[in-house]
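Translate sequence into structure tokens.
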Amino acid sequence: MVRFIRSLISNIATLIFSFVLALVIWVVAVRANDPIINKSFQLEITEQGVLAAEGIVNKNDRVVRITVEGPQSQLNPLTSQDFTAYIDLSQVTFGISNVPILVDTTADNPQESVQVVFQDPGETEIEVEEIISKDIPVVVNVQGNAARGHEAGLAISDPATILITGAKSRVDLIAEARVSVFLSDAREDAVRVRQPTYYDEEGDVAAINGVDTGANEVRVTVPVAEIEGVADKPLIVNFTGNPATGYRLLGVSVEPNSLLVTGAPTVLQDLRSLSTEEIDISGLNESLTQRVTLDLPSGVVLDEVQPIVVTVEIEPILTSDVVRVVPEVRALTEGYTATLELEEVTVFLFGPLPALESTTADDLSVTLDLLDLEPGTHVVEPIVNIAVSNIEVRSVQPEVVTVVVSDTLQVTPEVGEEALGATETPVINEPPSVTATPLATPTFVPTVIPTATPQP
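Result follows.
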């Protein structure tokens, strides 16, 4: 019996050894065909989980490097997209702390034979800041001054405060928002829209990176009112008469156009405007500039004495005129005559009415240049000359004139019965003098379209 037991134990040992040997041989054979290899990846560190309260997470490390090991057939298809590196925010408190960097595989069929054998870093230092909000005041800095006789009131900003939101460390540094408004002799309420600048407790400009300021613009209103007993009143020119015939009044202006006056508040309240002394523009044919005095009501005096200059603009009335003129022929070849198919042309003039009315026949001529024209029918463009510089020739009708040029030299042979066979002797008639139609006196047919003259 003992011998049987010893034999059985020996056989079992041999069987186990054979199994282990076979397993080793199988593993070696498998690894020979599919060896174990390493592969490295760089992963971005993400965040998972939720903080206990709203906050901002600042990480010292942005990426982690890992090395994975596994059979070649399983490792080769893997990329960095098959892994994720993250920190779990649900286990983090506000302040600075070290948290582990966790690495998981995101492959559809993760293989247990693929293992992470190296990771750097294994943990990272993070700072979690609480996000807070607070209202800061808007401070308005008013520069410059209101006009004389006026005063600026307390500036009003809309909004009066600005709600800022961000990391507590940044929000705590910001103390106020400032805007600036410049007044330049303002006579009425000044309304400006400005972009605020943020300052810290020390009065230095504060950075607002990562801070939500809410309002990008601030509307500022600076009330401006007249000082009691002082008022700024518009100045009106008092003029009479009309310009000379043929001229018109373009406009009347005064400098300055308003004046600061002082007086009893009740008097100034009823006073709508100030007036200059009366200016007579009767018969004016040119612009006028002159200094004038004021016609101030009783109890009202100027706050500051200054020159007052009135400018009256006068210009001629522009109109048109129609003139019919018999054209003059010039440069006709000697021995030729010229016949015109019409007796006169119509000239359209434009310019100041006084200049048109004073234009005479000696100031206007229409000529036809027949230089080097041979006998026959020709079309010639009239040439208009006018001696008045500020009158413009707008057009001529007709634009061309038909001229027939004829030769007045004729040869007439005379042959008698007794002179048959003899040499012909021409008889030459005496050539007449050149016949050209003389220049007629222009006939003026004015077409005047006057411009209404503004009445005072």
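Note: The chain has five domains: 1-29, 36-121, 131-226, 230-316, 319-411+431-447.
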